[in-house]
């Protein structure tokens, strides 16, 4: 098994990592170990025969993983990272699509431009690593929910996980990796309330970091900005109609 340095040889800057069928690994910014751990939590339900929409697909790790796990139809969408102001491109997605001989469909479209009339609705909608990059969390979550007729999966930074009040914290421009496109971190109570507004009757939360660590991080986020460590727990949300 070897690590492929495609970022240099093919002029692709990879965000996602990939474990190829022959055992080789493409090392991206997000490690294969982290992605595989997240995939176990994101795809905990059987996908056999289901349709999947991946919003904010970037290099497509979760789109291709859904196909691998038996989804009958997968649509990968992105705009910010494929042709918008983000630093990514669609080159990684296209390279992996070719290497895997994938049937995943793709469309360059912003979240707010997704409509059931044009694209239909899907059994499963993935909204992974998107919410904290938008200025209007409510409207973007509403748009994603409208595309889903069964199961919505969200992955996001979170904060104040034990606070019963629905709260979002505004992120300082340089707080997470110096990325100025980070805006809001919602807490679980806020996500639950918004999802109920959009017709989801069952909502479950899974922390991707150990609960003890997540509690320590949540406490740190209440400190003055100058005393905070630049980190926050990450949350996976499963919402069902």
Describe what this molecule looks like in 3D.
The protein is α/β, with parallel strands linked by helices and 241 residues long. 28% of the residues lie in helices and 24% in strands. It contains 8 helices and 12 strands. It has helices at residues 6-9, 32-42, 61-68, 91-100, 116-119, 137-146, 188-197, 211-220; strands spanning 3-4, 18-19, 25-26, 51-55, 73-78, 105-108, 122-128, 148-157, 168-170, 184-186, 202-207, 234-240. It has a 7-stranded mixed beta sheet with strand order 6-5-4-7-8-12-11, sandwiched between helices. Strand 2 and strand 3 form a beta hairpin. It is globular and about 50 Å long.
Structural class: alpha/beta
Largest sheet: 7 strands, mixed
Cross-sheet strand order for the largest sheet:
6-5-4-7-8-12-11
Helix content: 25-40%
Radius of gyration: 18 Å
State the oligomer: single chain
Number of DSSP-assigned strands: 12
Q: What series of H and E elements makes up the topology? A: EHEEHEHEHEHEHEEEHEHE
Task: Report the total helices.
Answer: 8
CA-based shape:
globular
Q: List low-confidence stretches.
A: 5-9, 226-230
Beta-strand proportion: 15-25%
N→C terminal distance: 43 Å
Mean pLDDT comes to 89
Structure, briefly:
This protein is α/β, with parallel strands linked by helices and 241 residues long. Helix content is 28%, strand content 24%.
